[in-house]
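Human: Here is a favour to ask of a fellow structure person. Comparing notes only helps if you start from a blank page. Give me a protein, with the fold worked out from its sequence. Please set it down just below, with no commentary around it:

Assistant:
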Amino acid sequence: MTTVFDIPADLFNPALAKAMAEQDAVSMPEWAGYVKTAVDRERPPVQADWWYARTGAILRKIARSGPIGVTHLAQAFGGKKDNGAMPNTPGVASRHIIRTALQQLEDAGLVEKVPTKVVEGEDGPVQLYAGRRITAAGQKLVDNVAHSVREEAEALYPGLSKY
């Protein structure tokens, strides 16, 4: 069976974005047309379906290297912040966009939080989490998308037929 590890991201992410657009729980928020996706960007995205592409890319990252948290995802989707005459520094992506996308993926049943331990807080016990991982339904969706683009991937990358 073809998995997410077998298909290159440039073929896999657009197909997964189409699958995200078909999910009922994943929808573009009303504020999404006005926000930048990271601190190193100057303008909002110009693509109409950028939310589904980002949600699909987040799901792919979780499937490949989960459990993973919001901070690691923000660093992965960030870029270089231009500081003018000073050296460039790493710029992180918008955590609000990532958190909202993760909440939508949780509502769709594709990802889940990974509990680690309970600690005592001021208001009582508090549950800590190690990040989010993909569920069985999410793995099935990702594998089905990977299987659907397998022939196109083999045509563009002939060496993939060995795997």
User: Anything to note?
Assistant: The beta strands are 79-81, 89-91, 111-121, 124-134. The longest strand covers residues 111-121. The chain is about 45% helix and 15% strand. The chain has one domain: 9-162.
